[in-house]
Design brief:
about 450 residues, alpha/beta, Rossmann fold, Helicase, Ruva Protein, domain 3, 4 domains, five-stranded parallel sheet, three-stranded parallel sheet, about 45% helix, about 10% strand, globular, phosphoprotein, Sig_transdc_resp-reg_receiver, nucleotide-binding, sequence-specific DNA binding, Regulatory protein
């Protein structure tokens, strides 16, 4: 079995070390940087649980996956209580094991990232909060007050303002800092996958569910679960999420048993949820449950005085990354940056600095290293042929709806009814595309034709 697993995991790019018994395994752990341990529960006279305990005692403990032929609930509970990432029963599916290893590595990576961020915060703000504007000082003061509590927090702000950064700061400034910080992008997952990711599932709950899996809310332990883009959660899932947050218990997909969880929940959105409630796309009771405390992040255009400080902070990071210690912005380049409104906020500024530093031919970054849009140069606008007329009874909303519908139909026809491809053609997320189909009554047909009776 050891040799088989070595071949299986080496073929997908992992470096694998082997140990034939408990003693050798523990010695190997102490002498090398192991990221994931896969161990049988029964090791001759030894036990996989002893290997697990030795792994958990390390300064930077690896994740541990235990293999058992017995698969009893008692064995699983014992392994999870001792700190195992997960367990798998013999006989197991190769793809299932490889996915388990991948997920374990992702969790360990997040934990190491948390540890590094914690170190950067230990002496103060540590670069996480660059700027002296009153708006950001107010945000930081609120984070400091809220972080130690168990209170659910809703973070609002435009895209690129740093909502996940605030969520991580809340986690790292709390007593939960030693536990996992697990983010979930709610907009990237369809309804079924999102529920399985959050609540877990039992074996046989759906095709491909070959073993019981804990959801993120349970897996986070006493850590923090960050629900990014909470405004994109489907209404049916919102109902379940509301109950979960009220009861502090989850019911895995396909199970009739509820499981308690201890994690703190932090959510974020770039939408105005009050408007979403009025439009019937977000539950009012869930909004009240989420925004016990709201941290509202200001856009960068409202903290102009922080732009030069942020730009120099990002450039300092690029100097280290590129090995070019003399990189500096010219005074003219700083003035160009300070005049720009940055619709993409801090993330856009960071990308601009990274681009300028990477492409710079000299150590002085002048205005010419910045995108033309920042320098006030515009692409030639297309020529307008004829005047726009506004006939009596004209409705802009109806006109835009008609245009949107035509584009949806055209995309469906070009993609031969493949909705994911049609969404890509229009530059939409699948969830947004599906919403627009339903809005125009096109969801009943796969080919984009008129719905029945239309």
């Amino acid at each position: 079995m050891r040799e088989y697993l070595e071949v299986l995991l080496t073929r997908v790019g992992y470096r694998v070390s082997l140990a034939g018994n408990e003693k050798t395994a523990i010695e190997t752990l102490g002498g090398s940087g192991v990221d994931v341990v896969i161990s049988d529960m029964k090791l001759g006279q030894g036990s996989g649980l002893n290997v697990l305990k030795a792994a958990r005692a390390l300064a930077a403990p690896p994740e541990v996956v235990l293999i058992t032929a017995f698969g009893t609930p008692a064995a699983a509970v014992e392994a999870m209580r001792a700190g195992a990432y997960d367990y798998i029963c013999k006989p197991f599916d190769n793809e299932e094991l490889k996915l388990l290893v991948q997920k374990a590595l992702e969790k360990r990576g997040l934990r190491e990232e948390n540890r590094q961020l914690r170190r950067s915060l230990s002496g103060g703000r540590g670069g996480l909060w660059v700027g002296e504007s009153q708006a950001m000082k107010a945000v930081w003061g609120l984070v400091e007050k809220v972080a130690p509590s168990r209170t659910t927090v809703l973070i609002t702000g435009e895209s690129g303002t740093g909502k996940e950064l605030v969520a991580r700061a809340l986690h790292l400034r709390s007593t939960r800092a030693g536990a996992p910080f697990l983010p979930v992008n709610c907009a990237a997952l369809n309804e079924g996958v999102l529920e399985s990711e959050l609540f877990g599932h039992v074996k046989g709950a759906f095709t491909g569910a070959q073993t019981d899996r804990s959801g993120i809310l349970v897996s986070a332990g006493e850590g923090t679960v960050f629900l990014d883009e909470i405004g994109e959660v489907p209404l049916a899932t919102q109902v379940k999420l509301l109950r979960v947050l009220q009861e502090r218990r989850v019911k895995p997909v396909g199970s009739s048993t509820e499981v308690p969880f201890q994690a703190r929940v932090v959510a974020a959105t770039n939408k105005r949820l009050e408007a979403e409630v009025k439009a019937g796309r977000f539950r009012e009771d869930l909004l009240y449950r989420l925004n016990v405390i709201t941290v509202d992040l200001p856009p960068l255009r409202e903290r102009q005085g922080d732009i030069s400080l942020l730009a120099r902070h990002f450039l300092a990071k690029m100097r280290e990354e590129l090995g070019r210690p003399n990189l500096e912005f010219s005074a003219e380049a700083v003035q160009v940056l300070e005049r720009y409104v940055f619709p993409g906020n801090v993330r856009q500024l960071q990308n601009i600095v990274e681009r300028a530093a990477t492409l710079a031919d000299s150590d002085t970054l002048g205005p010419d290293t910045l995108p033309s849009a920042l320098r006030g140069e515009r692409e030639p606008e297309p020529q307008v042929v004829g005047e726009v007329t506004l006939p009596v009874g004209f409705s802009l909303e109806r006109h835009l709806d008609d245009a949107e519908r035509r584009y949806l139909v055209a995309a469906l026809q070009r993609s031969e009814g493949v909705k994911t491809r049609a969404a890509e053609l229009l530059g939409l997320s699948f969830r947004s595309f599906r919403y627009r189909l339903a809005k125009h009554g096109l969801s009943e047909r796969e080919d984009g034709g008129e719905p029945a009776g239309g």
